Structures are given as C-alpha cells and as structure tokens.
Amino acid sequence: MRIALLESLADIVATLRSDATVRVAIDGVDGAGKTFFADELATLVQSRGRPVIRASADHFHNPRELRYRRGRSSPEGYYHDTYNYTELYKKLLAPLGSGGSGIFQRAAFDVGADKVVFAAEELVLPNSILIFDGMFLHRPELRVVWDFSLFLTVPFSVSVPRGASRGPGWGSPDPAAESNRRYVDGQKLYLNECRPESLATVVVDNSDLAVPLIVAGREVMGRYSGRA
Question: What is the pLDDT of residues 122-134, one digit of tens each?
C-alpha cells in the first residue's frame, strides 16, 4: 500500500511543469514521518527522469538564543521562532522560483552546533524538482511558494511516541507530558491558525507507516493521473 501511494504521487510530481523548477512541500507535525516520506518520494521522482533537489527545514533553524527568546517552554516560541524564513527564502526558495538566479544553497544553519554554515552554491539543472520537508510549511509566507504540497496528518498520540522512539534526548512519549508542552502546543497553534489540511494539494494520513491513506485531494490525484 505504501509503495503504491508513493508511486502514484511520484507519477504526478514527475509530470508537473517542466519549464521551471517545481517546488514541492512535505508538511506535518514532528513525528509525522516527513523526512522518510520525502526521501522515498524523491527517489521515485528521480527514477522518472526528473532531477531532484532534496532539502529540509532542519537546515534553516534560527540560533538557539532566538529560538528560546520567549522561554524554553514557550509554544509561541516554537511556532514563531524555530526557523529562519528569511534565509530559507533567500538561499533556496527564491533562487529556484520564477525569475530566480538558479544558484541555490541547501543549508544555512547547523542546529546541533548552533552556528551558521556556508553551504556550497549549486546551479539548478533544467526540469528540476525541489522536494522540501519541514514543519509549518503552509504558513502565509510560505504557502504561496509551493507548486504542489502534501500534508501528512498524524494524531499526537501517534506522532509524539514515534518521535520519542528516535532515542535518548527526544523526550517523553506522552503527548501530555510537561516536557512536550512547547512542541505539542506550538504545533497546535500552527494547525489552528493556518489549517494546513485545507491548503495542501493532497492530505495523507500517515498514522500507519505501512498503509498511508489519502484523505483529501483525491480529485487532484485523479486529474493528474487520469484515474478516478
């Protein structure tokens, strides 16, 4: 089931406009499975003959001092201050957009080392597709950028334990734990304010990693693929 859904999505994405770089977003809460989903989709799109630029919001964080300026446990801080959208737009999204220079960088910040990085400049290949994963990708300043977007919907009862299973340092598996308030409530701010499920081209329930399900956007899938 998973590979069939990914193959269908890859068929669609690979046939999107070829006269400019296509920018595709993979959005969802922490633990939704965005990175693996984007990696798999990128491989399948590339196998269909389109060059792929794979990038992630994880490389466009703000410095620690800015991320925690509202307090270490602040949900508002998590939602508003985690990412550096100015650098993301300047170094990646704008160069790949219509009229952009085509010279882009995949990273601007190393969150582990808490320092700016100077990633190599790259020149986009013709007919390329950017597949970009991250949280909060349907914020007002980003939603207009995407040519195609996916939102992976997963309840916190699944996403939080999934995130915690990454290993030590990833927090409690209990969504109601005080240590998770910053993250869960910050993501709820985004969900309530932006309603990403209503904005995404396709919404996928990724609660069961083996059997992801399309819950919105079937008409889009049918229009692109020719299947109802």
Answer: 999 999 999 999 9
What does the domain layout of the chain look like in residue ranges?
2-225
Q: Which CATH class is domain 2-225?
A: alpha beta
Distance of alpha carbon 134 from alpha carbon 60, whole angstroms: 10
SS (H, E, C) the chain: CHHHHHHHHHHHHHCCCCCCCEEEEEEECCCCCHHHHHHHHHHHHHHCCCCEEEEEHHHCECCHHHHCCCCCCCHHHHHHHCECHHHHHHHHHCCCCCCCCCEECCCCEECCCCEECCCCCEECCCCCEEEEEECCCCCHHHHCCCCEEEEEECCHHHHHHHHHCCCCCCCCCCCCCHHHHHHHHHHHHHHHHHCHHHHCCEEEECCCCCCCEEEECHHHHHHHHCCC
**Is residue 227 over pLDDT 60?**
no
What CA dihedral angle connects 72, 73, 74 and 79, to 10 degrees?
90
Task: Read off the pLDDT of residues 157-185 as tens digits, 9 standing for 90 and up.
Answer: 999 999 999 887 788 999 999 999 999 99
